[in-house]
Structures are given as structure tokens and as C-alpha cells.
């Protein structure tokens, strides 16, 4: 549980300290990748709290989710369709569900 949570905290702190500027062309890609990564990290925290965490599943899910979300966004940009919304609609409810389950675990 500590590895995904520490990575999330470290990433947020580095993002705040380094002041990274993302160009307009890549803003959509980075936003979708961040949402996919956040879904994976929160899913890993929930899995650890449930006692079923596996590092291999976390790493492969993290990479697969981020790459798939960015690929959908890229294909949508080429076709002129907002396919990034598919990734956001998929990952959004999962993030809220994971946060709710984590919260319930501590209550």
C-alpha cells in the first residue's frame, strides 16, 4: 500500500515544486494520462486494504491504463472526435468508487 501512495504523494509534490509547463497540444494527453494513473493508484490502495494487492497487477495496470487512455485521445484527435471523453467517463466513476471504498474502510 505504501508504494502507490508514496508515488502519488511524490508525484504531486514534484508537480508543485518543478512548475512544469505543458503546451496546449499535449494538455489533453497529460490530463488523460494523469486521470488513468490516479485510477490505478487508488485501485492499488483499495486492493491493499482488501488484502489482495499484487505489485505485478499494479504496474501492468498503471502502464496499460495510461497508454490506452493516451492512445484513445490520439486516435480521437486524428479522427476529429473527442475520444478522450471515453477515458474520462470510464476512469471518473472508478476513481470516485475507489475513494468511497477507501473511506468506508477507515470508518
Protein model, in words:
This protein has one domain. 86% of the residues lie in helices and 0% in strands. It is built from four helices and no strands. The model has no long low-confidence stretch (mean pLDDT 89).
In whole angstroms, the N-to-C terminal distance is 18 Å
Mean pLDDT: 89
What would you call the structural class? mainly alpha
| Secondary structure tally: strands | 0
Integer-rounded radius of gyration: 15 Å
Any idea how many domains?
A: 1
Quaternary state of the chains: single chain
Q: Please give the largest β-sheet.
A: none
- The dominant shape is globular
Strand content: under 5%
Question: Which bin fits the share of residues in helices?
Answer: over 70%
Task: List the defining traits of the structure above.
107 residues, 0% strand
Please sum up the structure shown.
The protein has 107 residues and is an all-alpha fold. The chain has helices at residues 2-18, 24-50, 55-79, 84-106. The protein has four helices and no strands.
Secondary structure topology:
Elements: H1 2-18, H2 24-50, H3 55-79, H4 84-106
